[in-house]
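From the shared-data thread, chain only:
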Amino acid sequence: MNPNQVLGEENPFEAMQARFDLAAAKLGLDPGLYQILRRPDRELLVSIPVLMDDGSIHVFDGYRVQHSMARGPAKGGIRFDPNVTLDEVRALAAWMTWKCAVVNVPFGGGKGGVVCDPGKLSIGELERLTRRYVANILDILGPDRDVPAPDMGTNGQVMAWIMDTYSMHVRSACTSVVTGKPVGLGGSLGRIEATGRGLQICAREALQVLGMRPDECTAAVQGSGNVGQVTATFLAKMGVKVTAISDITGALINEDGLPIDDVCKHLQRFRTLEGYDGGDRITNKELLELPVDILVPAATENVITSRNAKDVRAKLLVEGANGPVTAGADKILDEKGVFVVPDILANAGGVSVSYFEWVQDRVGMFWPEHEVVSRLETMMVKAFADVVDMAKRFEVSNRIAAYMLGVDRVADITRMRGVYA
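Structure, as tokens:
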């Protein structure tokens, strides 16, 4: 089997296309526009030779996919992970296109990845890998072309290396070529918390639609990286009782509610839930099946499939990860009456504040954190309302409504621009 392909239900690109097809059919999308929007604009595959600390040379595989640039520069993260595939990067790039359109920021969709295990690389090896990857994709990067950001396995330091490498090649300091940078290097206040804050806003808005009070609700969060920790913290501050959280080693549960601040301190110190004695241990699979009001899958894609969707007991599903629910699970969740806030809406807080960072870098003037938070609140509330309204008008699920909203906005711009021939 081709290592860059995942077959069946769990192929993320096929899942994206299946949902795109449903949205396009509901919109009555022109066949020509359908063909344009269904496939990526550009795919770049690169070999990345890196001098390792022991003197050997290792060649890594890297990707950068630009799905659409109709609405503006491609925007999307770069992930360093041993399981990165081209189809995964294709799907993530397309999701970024629809996500940017749903929150109505002037970006297209892009995504990048390098097949590596950053945990097994030294700081020096990681820096050399990052800089050579950037050098190899340099021709398609730029603040008006393609603006990367952090993703799985990358962080603000990696973004600083990207910014510096690009700047050295163009012979000027170009902070707006990448977002998610340290604040001192042109990063935005509020960026680290942005995705989790956006999830909390969507959860709050959804509970209002469902007529549920936050202080009467329980929640389980799958994943305890930045998104999981911030989401759990903000849900707890909202009055929700967070009873479970997980990492790669398994899940922690306390039916009386976990002391989230204390859990986060443990995670920040040890980078694992192991050794924390404030609850009982269960598996990640069991966490997904807990009888909670709110479930937040914030780890990785394909955790809820046609095989386990019937066991999900949450009333509200807020997708923190990209693609945590497969297309095969959608119908099952719909039939069960689960209110799903899809990834291209729920986790769009990150790209929204990335847009704010890009704007601040471009004008050379930076906003206080309260202004960033206020702008994010306005943007997420509007996007949520637009998706729910679309779902009601067309009698479709929130997910297909979000796709319809995103696809319609990209198609409209593409139609206005015309096809260059």
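Confidence is low (pLDDT under 50) at residues 1-7.
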